[in-house]
Write a structure and sequence with these properties.
The protein is α+β, with helices and mostly antiparallel strands. About 45% of the residues lie in helices and about 20% in strands. The protein has 4 domains: about 100 residues, Helix Hairpins (Orthogonal Bundle), CATH 1.10.287.1260; about 60 residues, SH3 type barrels (Roll); about 90 residues, Alpha-Beta Plaits (2-Layer Sandwich); about 40 residues, no CATH class. Helix 2 packs antiparallel against helix 3, helix 4 crosses helix 5 and helix 7 crosses helix 10. The N and C termini lie far apart (about 135 Å).
Length: about 375
């Protein structure tokens, strides 16, 4: 307490925080027994606060894990996109851990307002130093909103190709065909070119078949089209017709495997985490998904298989073979038709040429 008397004014009592020098002088003038008692009380108080802080930290860590699992389960039951699920869960975990650390620091007696102000100042400095990281964060947000790709898509970007495994806050994880994990920053993905092979339902398959000069192109075309038409995975003419046929076949397959289980009443928490539709008080598994529920206003385009004479090469006549199939059948169709062309074209009298070089010798002039 500092008492100060202002002339012609009443006495005012103000509180002042002692400086470290004043505290040191106070400690020097303090009796030894009182100094030991004060140190003991301070250590006991600090030990109690430290114990409470440790308990709060581990309890908060346990609660954060439970909240993470509950949110993940709810998003899974509500069929939220996997990319958005990963991003939101990472953001929730980081936010909750930051609040937990601030709480623990407050329990230890450190002024949290000063800490938050210090953290904000450090955040500005770090943000300026790590502008690329913030760009990756913004890129992740754009990817989740614009959805140029999602988890499970096969993409090609920045010289790498693979299936998207995770879309995290700052980067995207893809897995290559030979099971290598590639981590690409979201910033370059949001501003660069991306080739998404999984976006469209149908893709065109291309082959180049070389036949010998002198072989009939019509006979080769007939043989190749016969091979292609015998494969049920290839679109015969229109994609819309193929989609309807496959949807009908899938619905029939699912209908044959229906399992009916009696519906059981549960509490509100179970209904929240395991939300499902009630159909005549029966639960039907698996859930039917009909692709033809969406009305498509598109003009039909002829996608019939075709064979064209592409190039008159040095040693062969190259034919361009084109056919359409569903995305998931692409590689299976490509390799199967490739092998059948190799095995069956020679049976139709079509030959595969080897590289040839004609050498002509001039006759020596007569003497």
């Amino acid at each position: 307490m500092i008492r100060c008397q202002i002339p012609d004014a009443p006495m005012v009592i103000t509180d002042s925080i002692p400086t470290p020098k004043e505290e040191l002088e106070m400690l020097k003038s303090m009796p030894f027994d009182e100094l030991v008692e004060k140190a003991t009380n301070s250590l006991v108080t600090f030990a109690i606060n430290l114990t409470i802080a440790i308990v709060v930290f581990y309890a908060g860590k346990f609660i954060i894990g439970k909240i993470h699992n509950v949110v993940a389960r709810i998003m899974l039951r509500r069929n939220v996109d996997k990319s958005l699920t990963t991003f939101i869960l990472s953001l929730i975990r980081m936010t909750l851990y930051f609040l937990l650390i601030v709480t623990v620091i407050g329990i230890l007696g450190i002024e949290t307002s000063s800490f938050i102000a210090l953290f904000a100042s450090a955040g500005v400095a770090i943000g300026m130093a790590l502008s690329g990281t913030l760009q990756n964060f913004a890129g992740g947000v754009l990817i989740l909103f614009l959805k140029p790709y999602k988890v499970g898509d096969y993409i090609e970007a920045q010289g790498f190709a693979g299936s998207v495994k995770e879309i995290q806050i700052f980067h995207t994880v893809i897995t290559t065909a030979d099971n290598k994990q590639i981590i690409i920053p979201n910033g370059v993905l949001s501003t660069g070119s991306i080739n998404n092979y999984s976006r469209e339902e149908y893709r065109r398959v291309d082959w180049t078949v070389g036949i010998s000069y002198g072989d009939s192109v019509d006979e080769a075309r007939k043989a190749i089209l016969g091979i292609i038409d015998s494969d049920d995975r290839i679109v015969k003419q229109y994609i819309e017709d193929d989609r309807k046929l496959r949807t009908k076949a899938q619905d029939q397959l699912l209908h044959d495997s229906l399992v009916e289980l009696p519906y059981e009443e549960h509490g509100w928490m179970h209904r929240l985490l395991h939300r499902r539709k009630k159909t005549n008080r029966y639960r039907i598994l698996p859930k039917l998904i009909k692709n033809n529920d969406v009305i498509r206003f598109e003009q039909k385009v002829d996608r019939s298989p075709a064979v064209y004479l592409h190039t008159l090469a040095d040693s062969s006549v190259n034919l361009s073979v084109r056919a359409w199939t569903r995305n998931e059948f692409y590689w299976a169709v490509y390799f199967a038709i490739n092998e059948r062309i190799y095995n069956e074209l020679p049976k139709a009298g079509i030959n595969f040429p080897f590289p040839q070089l004609d050498v002509h010798f001039d006759q020596p002039a007569a003497k």
